[in-house]
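User: Please predict the structure of the protein below. I'd like the answer in structure-token form so I can feed it into my own downstream comparison script.

Assistant: Understood. Taking the following sequence of 386 residues as input:
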Amino acid sequence: MRYSKLVRSISIRKKAKHLRPTLFLFLFFLSIVSITDRVYAQNDVNLPTTLTYEGEVKNVVEEVKNNNGGYYQKLEIEILDRDLRGKVLDVENGSVETPVSQKYKKGDTLVLTGFKDDSGEVRLYVNDYVRRGQLLSLFLIFLILSVVVAGKRGVTSFIGMAVTFFIIFSFVLPKISTGSNPILVIFTFSIVTIPITFYLSHGLNTKTTVAVVGTFISLLITVVLSVIYVHSAKLTGYTTDEAAFLQIMKGGTMNMRGILLAGIIIGFLGVLDDITVSQSAIVFQLKSANKKMGFSELFTRSMDIGRDHISSMINTLVLVYAGASLPLLLLFIDSSKTFGEVINYEIISSEIIRTLLGSIGLIIAVPITTVIAALVASNLDEKIPS
């Protein structure tokens, strides 16, 4: 009895020892957040205070459709929240001169935005639908499936995702918004989140540690390539209306090229997680099946599977970026310009560079992780981690 307690105590101490690096990184991050200056840049553009309400359409008073399919509507909307709760207001959707494509009907729940005029009267207009219910139900489906299918790992993966979002909204976005170098911010974010999310999702074991090391090395190489090609291609980061609006809001102080680079890095971080953990797991499973395997055989057999991973993941990456840019691609497909001319536009070339850099990161992650895993596994005499 005393012996079993001693063994359990030693086991707990070992686990605590393995947890120390992750806990240290998390506490280090919290200390950074605690001293982060949350005050936005002083030269932000001062805009009038915008009022936001939610309301339900009670009646469509007037509706006009023009020849181009646009609509002007005059709606009776009951306000559902805040100081105007229960009040019914007439709200316009578009105007006769500038109709809109969205048509609303009785029973729709809408987001309303507006302002108070000089007389103190609230002027509102329709912004969009309230979609909170649909988003919440879809999130619950995702959460239930994660727990049911993946069990304990599904729960820890969800915790890892929550930690990632917490760090993004409490550290990454405020730091970039106040003028910090986006590349340094994202690199700090990566150093902190990669170990935390990996160990939460895949457990504290040698397999995961190898994946963490392989991810860091692959990420570093890909970041260097990203900086080189974003600068050499003269990409500015002004590829969307949101980017231009952000720069105006911040008084021209934002590093849009750095933000573009940060977006590229975040984009392939998640993909690196999948490929490095998979490769590391393959190596250790092969070693577990045949403990006589040496480095050379482990590397060769694992790379055979890794090549299949590369081809499927690159195809996935291309489809993800193509799907996100589908309206843009449709716009250019009808253009009279040649493909060689179209790819020179920054809005197109930035997506091509983003896809290629992500694919390169995937490709180099496979042999790097496989080499590290094969070296570690071939020298392990203890029980192979699952």
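That's the full token string. Residues 284 and 377 are 6 Å apart (CA to CA).
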